[in-house]
């Protein structure tokens, strides 16, 4: 039964969706056969679908709805700005109040001397900016040959040509002839899957030292920058060993290369501080931000740039780069209201010392489930590794199929949005999550894990 009457019945919507809507990262034929779940509205941490079912969104949309859904003041900020000045560009020696105010605000909250903002519409295009910006920077310093960017396998930095090239997803590189030139990848600090007999700390240091080895192999005079997410998100919420980032920082400090922290997921509170870089004592030269900057209410992203890079580029003539919607006034106004809410409601504190520790305790207890090899969490980013053999940290055999997909299906059927990355289950809930929301989340997650285990036992896969 439809609880809301002003849209067509679900089956009709699904048929239209299948006929005309191409979905990102989706097997189109499979979805067309099955029919998409149609989300019609949302409030707080709860989604409602076209059948009136209420779903706990433990992924905050796509890791972005940090302030939760259904905020009137966000709609009002957008409406006010649309009435005042719905659009103007920032290309030809013009500016406007929302772009200026948001840049000032970002400079205030960003660590170190990250005082300059170049706007984009999301994380991918902000990372495209970064590729051009760091190469232009080194060219302006008289070193045009310093253009290689080192990234990591299984990183995610977006879906544009440059974003997907920076990313280390083999499935993405396989489509469309990627990566583009002068982007290379080193290993990821994924101890659970790749650490073998090393301790996490040994492994973290070893993986960080791959950066030094790569710089030496290529020659420091060829390398422009290293880019990394403080915690890999789309790669499966891979929380690096504590030894990893200090070693990376030391290596970056010892070499003349720029450090880009991709804060698209970690930024705006998710790790328990405003930025993931602060949680890991990273001193980036550039931060990529998007998602939590507007809590997904409107598309906006940015590169937040340090004094040295911004000032050098400013002195080097035209930077031939920009987007129609760089610094879109409505997006900036909405982002400002979002940051006001984050601060006034102390949502970052909720992650650090309110709901966060309770969520962490309950989440880590999931490691006791027979199907779970590890349950890790930092702030409001957590993951579970599903395994047939806990002691060996073993993955499921390839011919078993993706058990994470089965688990994700059971979560969804039990009105919980958790995502799977292969056989890792991940959460990144809105930062407004309460302890009673945690109880619901964990109860549904356990049920989904039980159902998954029962099913794979039935099917002889376990
Ligand atoms: N960087 C990171 C770390 C991301 O997680 C994402 C999106 N998941 C992006 C970049 C790309 O952002 P967008 O989808 O807004 O282009």
TrEMBL record:
Q: Which cofactor does it need?
A: pyridoxal 5'-phosphate
Gene Ontology molecular function terms on file: pyridoxal phosphate binding; transaminase activity
Superkingdom of this entry's organism? Answer: Bacteria
In terms of Pfam families, this protein maps to:
Aminotran_3
Cross-referenced InterPro entries: Aminotrans_3 (IPR005814), Aminotrans_3_PPA_site (IPR049704), PyrdxlP-dep_Trfase (IPR015424), PyrdxlP-dep_Trfase_major (IPR015421), PyrdxlP-dep_Trfase_small (IPR015422)
Q: Which UniProt keywords apply?
A: Aminotransferase, Pyridoxal phosphate, Transferase
The keyword Transferase is assigned to this record: yes
For this chain, the family text in UniProt reads:
Belongs to the class-III pyridoxal-phosphate-dependent aminotransferase family.
Full protein name = Putrescine aminotransferase
Source species = Tropicimonas isoalkanivorans
